[in-house]
Write a structure and sequence with these properties.
The radius of gyration is 19 Å and the shape is globular. It is mainly α. 23% of the residues lie in helices and 0% in strands.
């Protein structure tokens, strides 16, 4: 992956390749199914699914699906599914912190969310698959 400056003509030769396990993490298998070759073309593959969540800087929610879709990750490998669960749990923890700060700013008390779908992952903000409970903005 390469982050391109707005005006690349002034930055020729300054691009840096970022490790895909930490930046724009996709949570995909390191090898192509058809050929068993490394996706990045290298002779050996780092399995990004083994990356600790606290070391991941940014996530690309494609395989894991968007958090607000309250997915259940059917059809994914166990390794992918486990990291997706962990990344979603962190996303919903941050979302919960945001909603609490909004409530405090307005002098309101935030009631515990009522969603029952995998509360250890979705923190009460998913009623069912696809049943996202949005952030309350009016207090």
């Amino acid at each position: 992956m390469r982050i391109i400056p707005h005006d690349e003509t002034n930055a020729l030769g300054t691009a840096v390749e970022l490790n895909r396990c930490y930046y724009n993490a996709m949570v995909d298998s390191p090898r192509q199914e058809s050929s068993n070759k490394c996706r990045d073309g290298r002779p050996t593959c780092q399995d990004c699914r083994e990356t600790p969540v606290d070391q991941i800087k940014s996530v690309h929610f494609t395989l894991c699906q968007k958090p607000w879709n309250c997915p259940q990750w059917t059809g994914l490998s166990d390794a992918t599914k486990q990291l997706c669960r962990s990344l979603h749990a962190e996303w919903f923890r941050i979302r919960d912190d945001l909603e609490k700060s909004i409530a405090i700013k307005h002098g309101a008390v935030l009631s515990k969310p009522s969603g029952q779908l995998m509360p250890e992952v979705f923190h009460g903000y998913c009623k069912e698959r696809g049943g996202y409970i949005p952030i309350r903005v009016n207090y």
